Amino acid sequence: MNYSSLNYNSSTVSFLEAVKKGLAPDRGLYFPEKLPTLSAEFISQISSMSNHELAFHAIHPFIGEDLTEKELKTIIEDTLRFEFPVVPLTNSIASLELFHGPTLAFKDVGARFMARCLAYANQKEKGEKLTILVATSGDTGGAVADGFYEVEGIDVVILYPKGKVSEVQEKQLTTLGKNITALEVAGSFDNCQDMVKTAFIDVELTQHINLTSANSINIARWLAQMFYYFIAYKNRPHPEKELVISVPSGNFGNLCAGIMAQQMGLPIKHFIASTNSNATIPNYLETENYEPQQSIPTISNAMDVSDPSNFIRIQKIFNNDFYKLKKFVSSYSFSDTKTKKALRELYKNTHYIADPHGAVGYLGLQEYFKEVDETNHQGIFLETAHPIKFAPTVEGTLKLKLDIPSRIEDLMKKPKLSIPLKDYKALKKFLLER
Ligand SMILES: *Cc1c(COP(=O)(O)O)cnc(C)c1O
Fold first, then answer.
1. pLDDT tens column, 242-260
2. Which of 14, 248, 341, 432 has the fewest CB atoms within 10 Å, i.e. the most exposed one?
3. Is 434 helix (H, G, I), strand (E, B) or coil?
4. Is residue 376 part of a domain?
């Protein structure tokens, strides 16, 4: 499989090259040259396959000759080391819990897969040391740090805004040590992001060190997110009903992976792109005008994105056909007030404690069920993070105290190791002098 840039001004590259580059040289996103299709035979066998087998079949056509089957299987076994339970809440609504990984958010899957692919790429070329440079507003940094922890030949440098990530998130970024360094920036997430962007175009710097990014536009992160849609299909509580999946969306990478699986042939009838008040896409689907604004801060802050970078890939999957896109995807936006109400309703009616992102996904299903006959549909919303990651909001809204999951109890006791950082000059100095 080859990948071309969606700016159409760079040469095509193989899977591992696209993983190493992240963005194409013309700043476009990589996209596979053709969409594979799943055979009817494979689809009929899904219910008897293991998660590892499913993941292998889903992604194998995207890899080409870059990894042997054995290497790919090893990477998948290493990536999917935790469960993806589908929890039925009502007769027509279930939650797909994606937070059982090491950093309690769905980003673990993509980050772990990408880390292992890069490690292979590096090994094959007996490459020099790679440095992953990433800015985070919270969840990405933790997943990347954990995914790359102790991966040979790769150093990770994470920039995060001081005082603007949650306590759990900060611990996940700053306590690992070894090949992971956290830089605490006195500024906003945008300041962190700007410094990272500057570093990538700083020739003086890139001549001396091998820099790579690990953000969600990387194809290894994007494509690995297909895995759990196959798992959701396998474990859907009512196989006789039509499957509808609601994806709480920010940068739209997660949804894009689901749509990819669907267009390859996985029988998912419809997708719902559920957003918080950052409503660029719901507005677009209504008016056909794409008009990003300043992003608005919300309680589901991992989705505070107004110009989602992966949306262009979704358009491409549908050959830029607006009406085809609308046939398969609905999109709704929900305020923080509605999100809190949904958290309370879920807890009261089903004893389920969702996180604010999952609650937005739940609301998307409810909205869709106003348009179709609910009894014929199996709705699944993606529960993208563990509620403890957003403890102040969840505890405040539900008036309860969350238990700390045993797997992060130790984490919370570890000392924070971070280096304060003022500006780009200091970042450059740090990177060159390590
Ligand atoms: C990143 C994130 C999202 C948004 O995912 P996208 O792929 O960017 O749309 C939703 N929920 C949580 C908890 C996240 O960390």
1. 999 999 999 999 999 999 9
2. 432
3. coil
4. yes
